[in-house]
Write a structure and sequence with these properties.
Keywords: Cell membrane, Membrane, Transmembrane, Transmembrane helix. This is ABC transporter permease. Pfam families: BPD_transp_2. Its main location: membrane. The structure is a single chain. The chain is globular. The C terminus is likely disordered. β1 and β2 form a beta hairpin. Helices cover 76% and strands 1% of the residues. Strands 1-2 form a two-stranded antiparallel ribbon. It is an all-alpha fold.
Length: 336
C-alpha cells in the first residue's frame, strides 16, 4: 500500500471517529464552558467542596441517563427508569446497612432488584410485543407502587461508612462519586460497547429489519439493553441513598429523573431514533442539565421561573434530537 493510500486511510479513520464522537465531544465542550461560568460566579469559586457537591448531584442524573441510553440505542425509550431509581432508593434504605457483610449483600440485593426490573421491561417489550413507551409506563407505575409499600413515609438509613466513602473526596480533592462513575463506565459501558452484543444493539437501533435479515440475535440484544438499563438505574438509586441517608417514594423525583434522562441523552448526542450515540455523551449531557440548574441558582433566578426554564431546555433538547432526521431525505443516511 502506498504512502498516499495509507494517509487517506488514516484520514478517513479520523473523520469516521470524529463523526461518531461528535455529539460526545460537543457535550464535553459545552459542559466545560458552563461549569467554568458556574464556578467563576459561585461565592466559593472553584474549590474541592464545590466540585464534590456538583459531582454528587450530577452523578445521580448521569447514572439514570446511562440507563436510558441503553434502551434508546435500540430505538426504544424507557419511561420507568426514574421509578426503578426510586424503588431501589427505598429498598436500599432498608437493606444497605449493618455489618460489612450485611451491607455487601444489601448492595447486591439492590442491584439484583434493578436488574430484574429492567429484565421485566425487556421481556414485556420483546415477548409481549408492546410498544416500549406503553410497557414502561405500566411497569413504572407498578415499580412506584412497590416503592410506596417499602417507604410509605420518608425514612430509613444506610451504612454511613460506605456512604461517606462514596460521597466525599479522595486525596487531592477528587470527588469519590466521580471516580465511582468512571468505574461504572469502565466496568459496564466500555465492555458492552466493544462486545458483539453491543454492536448488535447499535445495529438493531439503526435498522431492526436489516439486523434481522443479517441473522443477528435481536431479542437477546434488546433484552440485555433493558436489563442493563435497570441495573444502571439501581446504581443511581444506591447513590441517592448514599447522598441523602434516607429513602423516599417520591413521585416528583421519579418523573423528574425520567424526563431529565431523556433530555440528557439528547444533549449528549444520542439519537432518539436509535443506533447512534454513547453513554459517555449522555453523562456529559446529564452534567450539562445539572449545571443549568446550578447556574439558575447562582444567578438568583426566581424559583418560580426555574421549572419553566428547565422545561424549555427539555423541549429544545428533544427538538434538536429530531432535527437531523428532518433535514435528511433518506433515513438510512442518518447511520451512514
Amino acid at each position: 500500500m502506498t504512502d498516499q493510500a495509507l494517509t487517506a486511510r488514516h484520514g478517513g479513520d479520523w473523520r469516521y471517529w470524529f463523526g461518531e464522537q461528535r455529539g460526545t465531544l460537543l457535550a464535553l465542550a459545552v459542559f466545560i464552558a458552563m461549569f467554568a461560568i458556574y464556578t467563576s460566579n459561585h461565592p466559593a469559586g472553584f474549590s474541592a467542596d464545590v466540585v464534590t457537591t456538583a459531582a454528587n448531584k450530577g452523578v445521580l442524573l448521569a447514572l439514570v441517563a446511562m440507563a436510558q441510553t441503553f434502551v434508546v440505542l435500540t430505538a426504544g425509550i424507557d419511561l420507568s427508569v426514574g421509578f426503578i431509581f426510586i424503588l431501589c432508593n427505598c429498598l436500599a434504605s432498608h437493606i444497605v446497612l449493618g455489618s460489612a457483610i450485611q451491607t455487601t449483600f444489601g448492595v447486591i440485593g439492590v442491584l439484583a432488584a434493578g436488574l430484574a426490573c429492567g429484565a421485566l421491561n425487556g421481556a414485556i417489550v420483546i415477548y409481549g410485543r408492546l410498544q416500549p413507551i406503553v410497557a414502561t409506563i405500566a411497569t413504572g407505575a407498578a415499580f412506584y407502587g412497590i416503592a410506596l409499600l417499602l417507604r410509605e413515609q420518608p425514612g430509613g438509613d444506610v451504612n454511613e461508612a460506605l456512604a461517606d466513602f462514596l460521597t466525599n473526596q479522595f486525596p487531592g480533592g477528587i470527588p469519590a462519586s466521580a471516580v465511582a462513575l468512571l468505574v461504572v463506565v469502565l466496568v459496564i459501558w466500555i465492555p458492552f460497547r466493544k462486545s458483539m452484543l453491543g454492536r448488535v444493539v447499535y445495529a438493531v437501533g439503526s435498522s431492526e429489519s436489516a439486523a434481522y435479515m443479517s441473522g443477528l440475535h435481536i431479542r437477546r440484544a434488546k433484552f440485555i439493553a433493558y436489563a442493563l438499563g435497570g441495573l444502571l438505574a439501581s446504581i443511581g438509586g444506591l447513590f441517592i441513598t448514599f447522598v441523602t441517608y434516607t429513602g423516599e417514594a417520591s413521585l416528583t423525583n421519579a418523573n423528574t429523573y425520567t424526563l431529565n434522562s431523556i433530555a440528557a441523552v439528547v444533549l449528549g448526542g444520542v439519537s432518539l431514533f436509535g443506533g447512534r450515540g454513547s453513554a459517555i455523551g449522555a453523562i456529559f449531557g446529564a452534567l450539562i442539565f445539572r449545571t443549568i440548574g446550578d447556574l439558575l441558582f447562582v444567578f438568583d433566578l426566581d424559583p418560580l421561573w426555574q421549572p419553566l426554564f428547565l422545561g424549555v431546555v427539555l423541549l429544545i433538547s428533544v427538538c434538536l434530537g429530531s432535527f437531523r432526521l428532518i433535514r435528511i431525505r433518506n433515513r438510512l443516511d442518518l447511520f451512514g
